[in-house]
Amino acid sequence: QDAIDRKERRSETFKTAVHGLETGNPALKTEELGRRAPQWVRDNLVTMCMRCKEPFNAIMRRRHHCRACGYVVCARCSDYKAELQYDGNRLNRVCQECYVFLTGHVVLEDREGKHKGILEKGAAEVSGRSLLCSSLQLLDKNGKGGTRGWFVIPRDDPLVLYIYAAPQDVRAHTSIPLLGYQVRDLPQSDSRHIFQLAQSRQVYTFVADTEELKQRWMRAVARAAAGITHPEEGEDADS
């Protein structure tokens, strides 16, 4: 019964698998898993395994694709084989979750059931129900260099800004509680659309791709900083 319950829970997760954020991938229906070839999540949209959340690197942890769901996973999480109907029932490399779903076999090393940490919210899932999400650049302290990432203010956690390295990552690498911050509009410099968040000695400097996007972020962050949790009238999530 425990195995049946776990299989049913996994079935629910596949109903929204491979969400089409910035990929154009249609959702993969549960009943189509293994019967239809998935569209793979692009390598450059993730920086960590979409199952175990460990970061990829060039030597010890390389990228692989599950042939059933199309997720980008590490070697350890894709060390399973299952027959796929769309490939003539030949054995293909699949992730642990797809292996259990397709074969019904129970894997003893099961990560399910562990409490999700505050950062363990998938970018695609959170972005699909966000107040605002887009790519931004976060500048370093000297303002010369910086890191581009995927930034999200979730509807169910509207006072926090989550920062992902890529828009399909399954774990945020950091978060910023927005309550109490001041929003500063900086003049355009070298065609860069810049704004800041400041509180005491802590200052974050962001660069948006357009002036319109910058203004939207400033409005959203100002509302969060003031403790306003409900969306503006007519406001829709960006994706």
Query: What is the name of the CATH topology of the largest domain?
Result: PH-domain like
| Fraction of helical residues | 10-25%
CATH level 1 name of the largest domain: Mainly Beta
Number of helices: 4
Structural class: alpha+beta
Distance between the termini: 39 Å
Largest beta sheet: strand ordering:
8-7-6-5-11-10-9
**Taking all residues together, what is the mean pLDDT?**
79
Walk me through this protein's architecture.
- With 239 residues, the protein is an alpha+beta fold.
- It has two domains: 29-115, Zinc/RING finger domain, C3HC4 (zinc finger) (Herpes Virus-1, 2-Layer Sandwich), CATH 3.30.40; 123-226, PH-domain like (Roll).
- Helices cover 17% and strands 25% of the residues.
- It contains four helices and eleven strands; from the N terminus they run H-E-E-E-E-H-H-E-E-E-E-E-E-E-H.
- The chain has helices spanning 2-14, 96-103, 123-127, 211-225, and strands spanning 64-65, 72-73, 80-84, 90-94, 130-139, 146-154, 160-164, 174-177, 182-185, 193-199, 202-208.
- The strands form three sheets. It has a seven-stranded antiparallel β-sheet. A two-stranded antiparallel sheet has the order 1-2.
- The longest helix is centred in the last third of the chain and has 15 residues, at 211-225.
- The radius of gyration is 20 Å and the shape is elongated.
- Mean pLDDT is 79; it is low at 11-27 and 109-115.
- It comes from Pelecanoides urinatrix.
- Keywords: Cytoplasm, Cytoskeleton, Guanine-nucleotide releasing factor, Metal-binding, Phosphoprotein, Repeat, Zinc, Zinc-finger.
- Its main location: cytoplasm.
- Residues 43-103 form the FYVE-type domain.
- GO terms for molecular function: guanyl-nucleotide exchange factor activity; zinc ion binding.
